[in-house]
Design brief:
371 residues, mainly alpha
């Protein structure tokens, strides 16, 4: 197999970046599941080790990436039929796999959830006790969410779906005025929003849109500036880590959002334009994991729960790291199955429906396949 995965219509390095972000979320949730002393928590979360469990920073990377990658699809068509196709694809891409993952988690909670062991945290003990009735589960399928705690990562899918629905309008605003107007509107929304509402992530998507619109000019400028992409990457990682280290998310959530969004944007700039980083992120297996990163994200918590019997006694940092690696390896092993059995059929279904819409509305089939 070639050392790099080729994709004619997208930058493969961004798949690799998405894979690393997904693995950080896996490591973070595994670390949350382990009972820790205050000293162990301080050592893990407020030291350079925090880079490997920085789920909040990884989520900002996901959202900036979404804004960047979806802008091309949103720009390809502005008629109602074309926007409808964009929506159909996003619903099929996000909601279909979410429903399947929710069903897997619900069945696992009913039949497979283990009893809490001595080495699990109070957070995990609470989640191990969660059960949903059939009616509660059915209501959870209407829109992406946490499924009553069975998918703690599901709140991010809610944000992703909300901004997927808004994205054609955000892109139109940026294209018809200037991307800076969109960023200023997002900052205003952040200023008046509740501290932890979905609207605070408008800045991430807006910066992703701005980055896509300026990608050619930015690439030309970076090509003339030596070490600029390396500086961008280092600064991006540092800004993503800073809110965790300084407790900004708890004490100053709005400032934390701005810092993390800028950090994710700088890291994306480095991934898209830095030759060394782009080459690394494009190599197999990093990019291969990126292709199945949504399944990694959706399935990892159920895998984690089923592996908590390994925490039959309190473990230290070394034991906790080993447990996190086991969870990550197990999740990466099942994710390709989820991709083939769940994600690809959902994408094919979305494409089929869009093709029907294209034929009935006279929109070209090329536009129907673009999103």
């Amino acid at each position: 197999m070639s050392t790099e995965l080729r994709a004619p219509s997208r930058l493969v390095a961004l798949d690799g970046l998405r894979a690393l972000a997904a693995l950080i979320v896996v490591f973070a949730h595994a670390s949350y599941a382990i009972a820790k002393s205050k000293l162990q928590a301080l050592t893990l979360f407020h030291s350079p080790l925090g880079l490997f469990v920085n789920a909040s920073g990884a989520i900002h990377v996901f959202f900036v990436l979404s804004g960047y990658c979806l802008t091309a699809s949103a720009l390809r068509g502005t008629s109602p039929a074309e926007i409808a196709q964009f929506y159909l694809r996003r619903v099929a891409r996000i909601h279909g796999p979410y429903v399947a993952a929710a069903a897997i988690a619900w069945m696992a909670s009913a039949w497979l959830y283990p009893a809490p062991h001595a080495g699990v945290s109070d957070w995990m003990r609470d989640l191990l006790a969660r059960r949903l009735s059939p009616s509660e589960f059915a209501r959870a399928l209407l829109f992406p969410g946490m499924v009553g705690g069975l998918l703690p990562q599901g709140w991010t899918l809610r944000v992703e779906m909300i901004f997927s629905l808004l994205l054609p309008f955000l892109v139109a605003l940026a294209a018809r005025t200037h991307w800076s107007v969109l960023v200023l509107v997002s900052l205003a929304a952040l200023g008046i929003s509740e501290s932890f509402s979905s609207s605070r992530f408008a800045l991430d998507f807006s910066l992703g849109i701005a980055l896509f619109l300026e990608r050619d000019r930015l690439a030309a400028a970076l090509a003339r500036a030596r070490f600029a992409t390396a500086i961008s990457g280092v600064a991006g990682v540092w800004l993503l880590w800073l809110p965790m280290y300084a407790l900004l998310e708890a004490t100053s959530p709005r400032i934390s959002t701005v810092v993390s969004a800028v950090g994710a944007t700088l890291l994306l700039i480095a991934a898209a334009n830095g030759p060394g980083l782009r080459r690394f992120l494009s190599r197999w297996p990093v990019a291969a994991l990126g292709r199945v990163s949504y399944s990694i994200y959706l399935l990892h918590f159920t895998v984690l729960v089923l592996l908590t019997p390994l925490l039959d006694r309190p473990v230290g940092l070394a034991g906790g790291a080993a447990f996190a690696v086991v969870v990550a390896v197990a999740t990466c092993a099942v994710a390709p199955i989820g991709y083939r059995a769940i994600e690809k059929p959902c994408m094919r279904a979305g494409n089929t429906v869009c093709a029907v819409v294209a034929r009935r509305t006279g929109v070209s089939l090329r536009a129907a396949r673009a999103a």
